[in-house]
């Protein structure tokens, strides 16, 4: 049986109403026949020497120089990093209209696209849904540990802080990953969801009171961003000074500019101070629960678990809120259905996670050896494989029909590295939007939709601002009870 046929043997079950694969069991679809082993991408163990030498150096072989007939497996690598085109993901043009670019990529390259993450930093972008699922569920061949890759990356590279090795679940594999993930899952699982509702409401009402009387606001800078950091800070037990430093550092890193390294140092330093304070005075918060966890995390490991929680919730969660509200205002038919109750806020969030996820390109892996993908394309060792969550969700092979209630999207990842805080993230985002719509049901954009600007960067889908206008309101402030002052265990 050919490699391609062996992949086609297992086809995910599909929703009758949507045609999209049904994502169950932590990101793994339900496979017809339920194979006893998860199907892995095929890999030829002995590529021809003329291919292997080039692959081991971490570059693609020019199509003109690769005689497929010389390969015992019959496969060659068609992309040439020297003479062929690599698309830069960090430009203003890409940020302005990425979906047009994804469509062009698909037509020219198929599921695997040669890209630049930053000047001089090559990677392979995965834009095919089925290909992405296979990679995300095959950590043996596609591990998340970037140690060998980063040896050749200059310290001043602006994307290094977002991708470098850290002692946390996101940037580790195997036993190390399992140890970190269980600590994170256990700590997050202790959060009281009822109390979390009260925390989000208190923050939302206070922020709306601050700008409600003006009749205009920037919902990114004055609402979503401060709300997310207030709530996350309370969850992990941050004092205001630590929260402010961490927020500033994270924003610098996501922008992937020359200040990214300084932002990394700022955030890590602030979180190290948080760990020191919580060791001295533990509380009922995620940091204290991580410190007390049975796996015995040291200070450096604690800092980077918190770093991941902040990074995975701060910018992405802020952008999920903003992108959903933006969609509602630029698509009045959609927004009207949400405000009228025909579509739930949860459905609106799912729509955005499908169509325009806040982390557009992420879930990096670093093959230790050259790998054959889709039965036809070799990817080199020790070079990033980046999953385009946005492009994969909109892959014509799976897109179509009603996506409300469909959980097959990759907006929160899939496989062993799937977002562990999904329930918390959706609760916070949903409550934030509900509070806003309750207070300002007729909010409108203050500028034409085409004047909204998207921040450049290879990873996020983020507006620079979301200016709105509305009838000035005087909102009754939320009066927190003693029980809602903290997140109890």
Distance between the termini: 54 Å
Residues in helix, %: 40-55%
| Overall average pLDDT | 80
Q: What is the N-to-C succession of helices and strands?
A: HEEHEHHEEHHHHHEHHHHHHHEEEEHHEE
How many extended strands? Answer: 12
Please tally the helical runs, counting DSSP H or I stretches of 4 or more residues. 18
Backbone structural class: alpha+beta
Largest sheet: 5 strands, mixed
Rg of Cα set: 23 Å
Please state roughly what percent of the residues sit in beta strands, choosing from under 5%, 5-15%, 15-25%, 25-35%, 35-45% or over 45%. 5-15%
Low-confidence segments, given as residue ranges, are 1-83, 477-489
User: What is the molecular shape?
Assistant: globular
User: What topology, given as strand order, has the largest sheet?
Assistant: 3-4-5-10-7
Give an overview of the whole structure.
With 489 residues, the chain is α+β, with helices and mostly antiparallel strands. It is built from 18 helices and twelve strands. The chain has helices at residues 3-8, 49-56, 92-96, 98-109, 129-136, 147-150, 160-163, 174-189, 193-211, 220-236, 240-254, 260-280, 286-291, 299-330, 332-339, 345-355, 389-393, 422-439; strands at 23-24, 28-29, 87-88, 112-118, 121-126, 216-218, 361-365, 371-373, 377-379, 385-388, 444-445, 467-469. The strands form four sheets. It has a five-stranded mixed beta sheet with strand order 3-4-5-10-7. A hairpin with a 3-residue loop joins strand 1 (23-24) and strand 2. The chain is globular, with a radius of gyration of 23 Å. The termini are far apart. Mean pLDDT is 80; it is low at 1-83 and 477-489.
